């Protein structure tokens, strides 16, 4: 085998310019694919992290029908989770080792007043400690307010920066929240603005936060109801498995009619940006197809030309007794060397460029968020997959020319002009 590869390498060096051009095409293709995977993968991971770690969590549990009608639900149709249902969810989550934390929330719409002007706001009543553990990026989004690690206290409210600018209020100001209760009555409560959060794109990016006890008092809840339970996993890669397990565990929570009353949603079910993440995956597949096409065409072209230009040479080595299998392996060896060398060079150049992009970082804006830092990274498994694909396609592209060379008749080949 080593002799075959040594002879194949010597043959490639005889046509140095053509070999270098083919290698250049493979290297460019490798660099384009690996850089695209690294950059888009970094963007996708950061984008998903912003949603899951700032607002949504990895999973959420709701009463059936809550998500579908959250913006249109009449106030008299309460779709909150009752304490008994919350206890069953807590019990199910407590049995899952992969769950890191979960946080109950009371969500509702309210009127926000600075005593002279009024606007609307979506309010989240949260348990501060559990909410900070479930969405750890939320406390870091505070751009104004005390930095004592407390998300929000009783009698306090955290509001988004756009609302603060629009209503001309700041940290320490007193505001009023007015909400309509289930029975149609209206209740109001004053709050002191504790902190102001930066803007974030997507659902929940403009929400305010108060203590969950204040939310229940404002809504005059007689029981400790919750609107949703946000869940954080220790390993987000276990999302699908945990979702299936949790749905199976909660199927037993049924209504008097025997129908399931709870629903489990992943972050992708709740965020419109999940479509963008899926689009990135589709684009990655198309980029890989382009790479395969480049390698296939370039290697096949150079091997077809090699066979055509060396017909008399092939006839000579066949006439002196070289078996067809040996001739086949010689040309396959040339294709294998082209793929392997191009892959090695392309991988080295790509890793160097990815390292450079992490040294000289690229800053960009996304929606409401400014000065985000691009940090491209690529897993060893992804590099190995692309490398194996390129080498395999190079070998496949040289198979037909090699087969044709091995089947040449020595007499006819020697007569070729």
UniProtKB/TrEMBL annotation:
Lipid bilayer topology: Multi-pass membrane protein
Alphabetical UniProt keywords: Cell membrane, Membrane, Transmembrane, Transmembrane helix
Membrane-spanning intervals of the chain: 20-43, 285-308, 336-357, 377-399
Domain ABC3 transporter permease C-terminal: 287-410
Domain MacB-like periplasmic core, chain residue ranges per copy: 19-248
InterPro entries: ABC3_permease_C (IPR003838), Lipoprotein-release_system (IPR051447), MacB_PCD (IPR025857)
RNA-binding as UniProt keyword: no
Cellular localization per UniProt: Cell membrane
Chain segments annotated as coiled-coil in the UniProt record: none
Pfam families: FtsX, MacB_PCD
PANTHER family attached to this UniProt entry: LIPOPROTEIN-RELEASING SYSTEM TRANSMEMBRANE PROTEIN LOLE (PTHR30489:SF0)
Homology family: Belongs to the ABC-4 integral membrane protein family. LolC/E subfamily.
Protein name from the UniProt record: FtsX-like permease family protein
